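Students often ask why inverse folding is considered easier than folding. One informal answer: many sequences map to the same fold, so there is more than one right answer. In these notes we will look at a single instance of the problem. The structure comes first.
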C-alpha cells in the first residue's frame, strides 16, 4: 500500500507542469498534487488593486461507482481502495491523519461509498503568499472544460481548506483535536452547490483572510463518481486577493459550525435508524471573540431541507436548500450508466450580514431532514449514505 502511494505521488510530481512559478513552494519541495497542477494569473474582477489567479489542483481519476473492492482501478490522484481512491494523506471523511505518510483507512460507513475519491493533500498549491484573500470560487470540470456534475456523472463531494502555520488556531475547535491539530485553522469550504465565497460581505469591503509566507494550505478534497464508468476530472479554484496586509483592514476568519462535535473525526453522521424526518443539532459554541457575522450558506446531504443558526437561542440565519437546478439533474446517459434517479440539492439561500458577535455569545446549528420529501442518497450496497449539517460562517474579528 505504501509503495502504491509513493508511486502515485512520484507520478504526480513528475507530471507537474507550471505555467507560472509556484509562489511559495513549501520548504523547497514540490507540493503534492494531482497531475497538471498550476497557478495561472487571470484578470481581477472586483478591483484593479487585486490580483486573481486560477489554481488548478490537479486532474484526478475516479473509479466507477460499481468498482468491486477486489479490483481497484488505477488512478493519477492516488490509490484506490475498492472504488474509494485514497490520495495524498488524511481527509475528514476518511480517517485520522496518520503520521509517517501511511494511507488512512476508510472510516466505518464510508467503505461502500461507490466512486468516492479522497485526493486530499497537506501541501496544496497556494494562490499567493503574504496576501489578503477576498474571494474564492471552486469548479470541477472534465479535461475538455465542460462542467462535471450530476448531469454527467461526477461531482464535487466536498472540500475543506485549512491553513497550517505558526500561531494558527481554529475558531470553532481550538486547542488541537484529533481532526484539527494545533496550528491548523479551517478557512474555506465548498460543497457541490459551489457557492462563491467572499472573505467579507462584498468583493470590495476592506477586510479579508491573511495568508502568510510560512502558512501551508491543507486541502481535504473528496470527489465522487455516480456512474459505472471511470471518469477523469479537473479541480480548480479561482482566488482574488490583495497583496500584503493593507493597514486598517479587518481580519476575516472562518467559523466551522457543525452538527458533529469537535471530538468527531468527520462531519458525516449516520441518519437516525428508521426515521425519515429528523433534525440534527450541533453543540453550542461560545464565542471567544468580538466581531461581526458576515455571511454563510448551509450544507446538507440530499434529503435536507434547511440549516438554521441560533445566536443566544434566537434564529439569525435560515439557509434553505433548493433542488434540481441546471446541471444537477442526472441526464439520460448518466441514468443509463447507473446514476440514481433522485433529487439533488443544487443551492442554498445565503445569509448575509448576520449580525454582531460578542465574547460569551452562543451560536448553535441545526439541520432539518425529510426523506419523504427528498430521498436520501444510497451507497453501493443500498444503505442510506451519511448526512451532514454544516455551515462555514465568515466572521470579521475585532480584538
Ligand atoms: C453565494 O453566497 C454569497 C454570500 O457569500 C451570496 O451573495 C450569493 O448570492 C450566493 N450565491 C448563490 C447562487 O447562492
Ligand atoms: C459496472 O457496470 C458496468 C456498466 O454497466 C459493467 O460493464 C461492469 O461489468 C460493472 N462492474 C462491476 C464490477 O460490476
Ligand atoms: Cu457533506
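Output (designed amino acids):
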Amino acid at each position: 500500500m505504501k509503495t502504491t502511494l509513493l508511486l502515485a505521488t512520484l507520478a504526480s510530481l513528475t507530471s507537474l507542469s507550471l505555467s507560472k512559478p509556484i509562489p511559495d513552494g513549501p520548504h523547497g519541495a514540490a507540493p503534492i498534487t494531482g497531475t497538471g497542477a498550476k497557478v495561472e494569473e487571470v484578470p481581477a474582477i472586483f478591483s484593479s488593486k487585486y490580483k486573481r489567479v486560477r489554481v488548478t489542483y490537479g486532474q484526478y481519476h475516479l473509479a466507477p461507482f460499481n468498482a468491486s473492492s477486489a479490483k481497484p482501478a488505477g488512478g493519477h490522484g492516488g490509490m484506490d481502495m475498492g472504488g474509494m481512491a485514497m490520495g495524498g494523506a488524511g481527509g475528514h471523511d476518511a480517517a485520522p491523519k496518520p503520521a509517517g505518510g501511511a494511507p488512512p483507512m476508510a472510516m466505518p460507513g464510508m467503505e461502500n461509498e461507490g466512486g468516492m475519491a479522497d485526493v486530499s493533500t497537506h501541501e496544496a498549491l497556494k494562490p499567493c503568499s503574504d496576501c489578503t484573500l477576498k474571494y474564492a470560487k471552486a469548479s470541477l470540470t472534465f479535461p475538455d472544460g465542460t462542467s462535471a456534475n450530476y448531469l454527467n456523472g461526477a461531482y464535487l463531494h466536498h472540500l475543506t481548506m485549512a491553513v497550517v502555520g505558526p500561531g494558527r488556531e481554529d475558531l470553532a475547535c481550538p486547542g488541537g483535536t484529533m481532526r484539527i491539530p494545533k496550528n491548523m485553522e479551517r478557512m474555506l469550504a465548498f460543497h457541490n452547490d459551489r457557492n462563491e465565497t467572499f472573505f467579507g460581505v462584498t468583493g470590495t469591503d476592506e477586510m479579508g483572510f491573511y495568508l502568510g509566507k510560512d502558512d501551508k494550505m491543507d486541502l481535504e478534497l473528496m470527489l465522487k463518481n455516480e456512474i459505472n464508468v471511470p471518469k477523469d476530472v479537473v479541480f480548480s479554484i479561482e482566488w482574488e486577493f490583495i497583496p500584503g496586509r493593507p493597514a486598517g483592514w479587518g481580519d476575516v476568519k472562518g467559523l466551522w459550525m457543525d452538527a458533529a462535535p469537535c471530538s468527531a473525526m468527520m462531519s458525516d453522521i449516520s441518519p437516525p435508524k428508521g426515521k425519515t424526518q429528523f433534525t440534527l443539532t450541533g453543540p453550542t459554541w461560545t464565542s471567544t471573540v468580538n466581531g461581526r457575522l458576515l455571511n454563510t450558506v448551509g450544507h446538507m446531504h440530499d434529503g435536507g431541507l434547511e440549516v438554521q443558526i441560533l445566536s443566544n437561542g434566537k434564529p439569525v440565519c435560515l439557509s434553505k436548500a433548493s433542488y434540481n437546478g441546471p446541471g444537477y439533474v442526472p441526464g439520460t446517459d448518466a441514468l443509463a450508466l447507473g446514476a440514481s434517479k433522485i433529487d439533488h440539492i443544487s443551492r442554498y439561500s445565503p445569509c448575509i450580514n448576520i449580525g454582531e458577535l460578542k465574547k460569551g455569545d452562543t451560536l448553535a446549528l441545526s439541520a432539518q431532514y425529510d426523506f419523504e420529501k427528498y430521498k436520501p442518497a444510497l451507497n453501493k450496497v443500498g444503505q442510506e449514505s451519511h448526512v451532514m449539517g454544516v455551515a462555514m460562517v465568515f466572521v470579521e474579528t475585532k480584538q
